[in-house]
Amino acid sequence: MHESMARVVMASGDHCLVADSDGSLNRCRPRRRRDPRPVCGDRVQWSADAPDGWIDAIEPRRNLIERGDFRGRPRGLAANVDRMVLVIAPEPAPDALLVDRYIVLGKALDIPLLLWCHKQDLASAAGSMPMQAIRQRCEDMAIPIMTGSTHDPDALTRLEAATGGETLILVGQSGVGKSSITQALVPTASLRIGQISASSGQGRHTTSETTLFDRPDGGALIDSPGVRTLRLDHLNPSAVDAAYPVIAEATRHCRFNDCRHGTEPDCGIREGIAAGCIDPEALKRWQRLREETAR
Ligand SMILES: Nc1nc2c(ncn2[C@@H]2O[C@H](COP(=O)(O)OP(=O)(O)OP(=O)(O)O)[C@@H](O)[C@H]2O)c(=O)[nH]1
Ligand SMILES: [Zn+2]
């Protein structure tokens, strides 16, 4: 039996598509029912068979991005990612909590983030309060920020240069422009989507799955569908704290270890709010994510 190495370009339910070194696609399934499910970006050993090939082994992952579904159960999204590109745009208006969820996820997995502010042609809206607040949030976290649009080739070239050779994952709300960015950075993306749909036998449905494309510069780009829920129940509260350093530090100044930051005396959080160094909206998001991860 011939066994070879390949990269998973799409995983869906019971099957996945792997790309050989020459780019050809093969539909495969895990060999045994209880085998771990491959995810987009995995490197695997597989053997050809009909109608589907078999995944024999998944190479050790450098990282695994999981997101919690609506019940909080973690679902593998992508593996072996070098950078998470968080895409926001004036439209649809950014969701600060969702942005924070991605920041927590990136920090927890130690995957560098980049904030890409898209649709700059809608310029007047680009300076809107929600956009500004998120830019500030990322600046405070030392997350690099870049701006651009699908109609600005120079900006896209800058993104390409800043991330050369890396495996990127584009994440963000539905409609912010992730697929448009993919088309711009990977000129063969449409062709590839056609091949993927044909090979998976799922027709158009496939385009709604997380998909990996090879970039012309040797890196790769993973386009993930926009999500409404990105629960973080599978992470620890300390992962949340890492994304809110000022708030986490302030809690160390509370007199009581179990301070609820309400009416307790000597509360570091209330002092931080009074001093203007804690944003009450950010505090609400921190509390919400702490609760989610504390269960
Ligand atoms: N004004 C403007 N519109 C853009 C730009 N880039 C993309 N769009 C439009 O935004 C809409 C959504 O773009 P997509 O690329 O499909 O967004 P997406 O993030 O992939 O959305 P999902 O696949 O649902 O997650 C489309 O109508 C695009 O034409 C841009 O730079 N400027
Ligand atoms: Zn307190």
TrEMBL record:
GO cellular component: cytoplasm
Cofactor: Zn(2+)
Pfam family, one: RsgA_GTPase
Compositional bias segments (type: Polar residues): 197-211
Keywords from the named record: Cytoplasm, GTP-binding, Hydrolase, Metal-binding, Nucleotide-binding, Ribosome biogenesis, RNA-binding, rRNA-binding, Zinc
Family: Belongs to the TRAFAC class YlqF/YawG GTPase family. RsgA subfamily.
Keyword Endoplasmic reticulum belongs to the record: no
MF annotations from Gene Ontology: GTP binding; GTPase activity; metal ion binding; rRNA binding
Keyword RNA-binding attached: yes
InterPro entries: NA-bd_OB-fold (IPR012340), P-loop_NTPase (IPR027417), Ribosome_biogen_GTPase_RsgA (IPR004881), RsgA_GTPase_dom (IPR010914), Sigma_54_int_dom_ATP-bd_1 (IPR025662)
GO biological process, one term: ribosomal small subunit biogenesis
Role description: One of several proteins that assist in the late maturation steps of the functional core of the 30S ribosomal subunit. Helps release RbfA from mature subunits. May play a role in the assembly of ribosomal proteins into the subunit. Circularly permuted GTPase that catalyzes slow GTP hydrolysis, GTPase activity is stimulated by the 30S ribosomal subunit.
EC category name: hydrolase
Ranges for domain EngC GTPase: 79-228
Major location (coarse): cytoplasm
NCBIfam families in UniProt: ribosome small subunit-dependent GTPase A (TIGR00157)
Protein's name according to its UniProt entry: Small ribosomal subunit biogenesis GTPase RsgA
Binding residue positions for Zn(2+): 254, 259, 261, 267
Assembly, per entry: Monomer. Associates with 30S ribosomal subunit, binds 16S rRNA.
EC number(s) per entry: 3.6.1.-
Location(s), subcellular: Cytoplasm
Cofactor note: Binds 1 zinc ion per subunit.
Residue ranges of the region described as Disordered: 197-217
Binding site for GTP: 172-180
